[in-house]
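Structure catalogue
Derive tokens from sequence
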Amino acid sequence: MPRFYLKTIGFLAVMLTSYSLNASGLISNFTGPRILIFAEDFNTKIQCKVLTGSYKLIAYTPDSIFEMDYGREDVHPTYTFDGDLRINKAEADSIKIIPSDTIVVRARKEASGWTEERFYTGTLLLRNGLLYVDAIVQVPVRDYITGVCEAEGGLSAAQSYHEAQAVLARTWLYTNLDKHNKEGYHIKDDQSSQAFRGVAHGKNKDIIARAVERVGDTIAVYDGKPIIGFYHSNSGGKTVLPQHVWSQELPYCREVTDPFAQKGTKFSWTKRIAFVDWQNYWLKQEVQFSVAQWRSFAEERPVDRETYWTIEDKTFKLETVRRNFKLRSTYFTMDVQNDYIELHGRGFGHGVGMAQEGAMYMAESGFDWREILNFYFKQLEFVPVSELSKS
């Protein structure tokens, strides 16, 4: 049976792990990232259960710590928590579950109901958000990288693609660990960070695991420092420099003609936008074009990829337009009709760095992971984190 403990405390600061940065900016004694999971919307409820093995549950109440230890032979209950975050009728500030094996979690969203179940290794922390509940997992680095590779490109069976993705995913992790420190975690599990849906479990999980194993703790560096490991779904046939998207110039990024991306399923797209919606957006930008003026503007556009438009005396980044209309990319031409505008586009994503579908085709064509990364970037070196942290 579970064993129960009660300890009184005056003040409690809950942290899942501690870490320190050395002079080179890399992590010392780092065991794994803290990740806000189900980050895309508010969680009205969190449901979780340890599948097998033993585990400890620790509830931090305003004036005490309440602990429960479960052994392998105990019946593991399914817990359902909401914003009140109660355990045995006592309200808690936070609850931590430390399993020896896998824990399964799902969330109930305000608008869409219950999510699918996700499986995690590591530690789960639930935080009282009054109306909502936050779920944070601390995952071993290798399990995190494997999960990212599956979430980002798990349908591919090309091992060298997953090796390239693993190097970029690990590099991105180490250059973004302070992204959400003030909120009590490192990164999120959605596209604002890197997609992560728990441990790899799909049909290519063994291929992905071997790929992550082969590259080990390798990261990509330029001039002795880790790069920002940009990647996107499909370049549409041409990548773009970061300064044309976010105003930040990076010497290791290159603009390349990418024939490999043409084989991808996300190479082309079409979207129709009601002219009134298009016009209302541009009126807010103080652009008052008629249908005829937009048609003339469209006819003047080059066939090649553009990253900004100059209209009269103002310049507009197309990345901002893309986000407003939820376009797949900024690489498109326009067909202007009286009541709608139809966009014919190429690619999916911001277009900077490695194009995942292009990298998959490169891998299927016999390129190794170094050749893939050196095609999309330039002047990179590949070194283990453990060696770089000694410098």
